[in-house]
Design goal:
heterodimer; A: alpha+beta; 6-stranded mixed sheet; 24% helix; B: alpha+beta; 7-stranded antiparallel sheet; globular
């Protein structure tokens, strides 16, 4: 049934996005987005009592960030995402998904620790036979990071 | 060229004693305790900006020299602070980081206090009649609080000098930025770093480290005129390196020439260090304020705030937020690099691999001169009665320790 197949394709896309970030395959991660795609990270501030926007970039801005990243002093640890896609809704050529994620960070000595948890709120659009991310909003539960990062989560 | 030898760093560097630091200042437990007592408890500590307590009843909880302190805006509009401890038997009055209340009511035995800290109710008070305990004998313990230019400062030392005297000659410089328009905190985030608080403060106030940041290297250090400004060193450990112009275009970022922060030029950057732990820095359109809570010799809670103008339209606020996040946001370009640097220093200090820090740059008080670094540690040493270049050398502290206090009524 087409609707189920589309749902599976969206779940696979969410999973692939995580694997590409873990692998540092940033060009291929960008390819998952539409040309006008948008990536946003939000986290609550208990101190101010409202949501903070930590990042809000279009695809080209995200591309520029990935390009300059190697020039910065970077965290050399690796990251591993665990993602479950909890809900998928599809209406014609648009889709929405809500996923829960956890990122584990493994340092240079091989010690792994939980790094971040949160949710992805994704909006998809069908382009031909494939689905693309029109927007991803990362809603972080984690607000204090052991090692800050400018990279998407 | 002289080859390095294992014993080379067993003795202090061959420099004036003002030009190097004994790195045990970053790791020694006794020094940490003395700092808590003589600097964080004995001086002025910046808590927050007043916009974080906009309405009567708004409160925030902070840790000052390991004591829990609650700052609250009263019905009369004044901000007051109290130890977050019920006068009865010390339970915490508030157990979250912020909120709004009409009065304080202890969750344990339901004693109540108004927003001025006055005890208004002791549960079943008749049992205190025989000993004569009255409401006014059980007020909250007040903490000295002053709000200046929108900045909320406290001191656990009731005899501390007035805040205007403490800030001294840096005050008119701050007034240019903080005194002409109502400001508002629009961003807050925090982190616990594995480093001594002074490493973060050093990083904030020594301009030489701009080589760490690829953005700063390209947009400022390599630009004409970068070295033309001079440090202004004020008394009591405060100072500023003056304004520098940033060329954001070389990094593909938008120019910052509109909706400027008060007192800042188009594409200008200016920073102020306030002893002991405050950085106040502006990048044209947005202000950032750093404060610190030392947790251990090798662990510090950092808080970062981003400020705009209260009058900002949604569009202007979105612009300030975007430009704030480009550099200073939790996912911004620079903070991760700063954290990497200071944590790297701390590992080597804790292990003993690094014994001394060289702060010997002399460049006619130009930005990369270590003159402010040296002035800061002169003040640090004066306040805690230590020499920053030699922890083992004797020195009398400038002020006496915080005296023990009886329970105080407001």
């Amino acid at each position: 049934m087409p609707e189920i197949a589309d749902s599976d394709r969206i779940r696979a896309l969410v999973s692939r996005a995580a694997r590409l970030l873990d692998a540092g395959a940033y060009d291929r991660f960008l390819d998952l987005f539409t040309e006008d795609g948008r990536y946003c990270i939000e986290a609550a501030s208990a101190e101010l009592g409202r949501q903070m926007t930590w990042m809000d970039l279009g695809r080209s801005e995200l591309a520029a960030l990935f390009e300059e990243y190697p020039d910065h002093v970077v965290d050399k640890a690796t990251r591993l995402h665990l993602v479950t896609t909890d809900e998928v809704e599809i209406a014609d050529d648009s889709g929405h998904a809500l996923s829960t994620f956890a990122v584990f960070r493994t340092d240079l000595h091989g010690a792994s620790a939980l790094y971040a948890v949160g949710h992805y709120e994704d909006v998809f659009v069908r382009q031909g036979q494939t689905w693309k991310l029109r927007s991803r909003k990362v809603r972080l539960e984690t607000r204090q990071f052991t090692v800050p990062t400018p990279l998407p989560l | 060229m002289t080859q390095p030898t294992p014993g080379h760093w067993d003795a202090p560097p061959r420099l004036p004693t003002t030009h190097y630091l004994d790195n045990r200042i970053y790791s020694d437990a006794a020094v940490f305790e003395e700092e808590q007592k003589r600097i964080f408890a004995g001086g002025w500590k910046l808590l927050c900006h007043e916009s974080e307590l906009p309405a009567p009843g708004d409160y925030r909880v902070f840790t000052v020299a390991r004591r829990s302190v609650v700052a609250v805006r009263g019905e009369d509009g004044l901000v007051r602070s109290f130890y977050n401890a019920c006068a009865h038997r010390g339970a915490e009055l508030v157990r979250d980081v912020r909120g709004n209340l009409r009065n304080f009511r202890c969750f344990y035995h339901l004693w109540a206090y108004d927003l001025k800290g006055q005890n208004t109710s002791m549960t079943r008070p008749q049992a205190y009649q025989s000993c004569g305990l009255r409401n006014q004998d059980a007020n909250l313990r007040a903490v000295r609080t002053e709000v200046l230019l929108g900045l909320v400062f406290v001191s656990l030392d009731g005899d501390v000098e007035p805040l205007t005297e403490y800030l001294g000659e840096i005050l008119p410089k701050l007034s240019k930025h903080l005194g002409s328009a109502e400001l508002e905190v629009f961003h807050h985030h925090s982190a616990v770093i594995q480093a001594n608080w002074k490493f973060w403060n050093d990083n904030n106030t020594e301009v030489y480290h701009e080589y760490l940041h690829v953005l700063n290297r390209r947009t400022m250090v390599q630009q004409p005129g970068y070295h033309d400004r001079r440090w202004t060193i004020c008394s009591k450990g405060h100072g500023t390196a003056g304004e520098v112009t940033t060329n954001y275009a070389v990094f593909g970022l938008e120019s910052r020439a509109e909706n400027l922060f008060p007192g800042v030029s188009p594409n200008g950057l200016i920073a102020y260090g306030l002893f002991p732990d405050v950085l106040l820095i502006m990048r044209s359109t947005v202000m950032r304020i750093d404060t610190m809570t030392p947790l251990a010799p090798d662990r510090t809670l950092l808080e970062w705030r981003g400020l705009g103008l209260k009058s900002d339209t949604p569009e202007v606020r979105a612009m300030r937020l975007r430009q704030h996040n480009q550099v200073w946001g939790p996912a911004g370009r620079n903070l991760a690099e700063d954290v990497a640097a200071v944590e790297s220093q701390q590992r080597n200090v804790m292990s003993g691999a690094s014994r001394y820090s060289i702060i010997a740059r002399e460049e006619d008080q130009r930005p990369h001169d270590d003159c402010f670094f040296r002035a800061y540690y002169q003040e640090w040493g004066r306040r805690i009665g230590r020499w920053a270049h030699d922890l083992d050398a004797k020195r009398e502290p400038a002020s006496s320790p915080l005296p023990p206090r009886q329970t105080a009524n407001a």
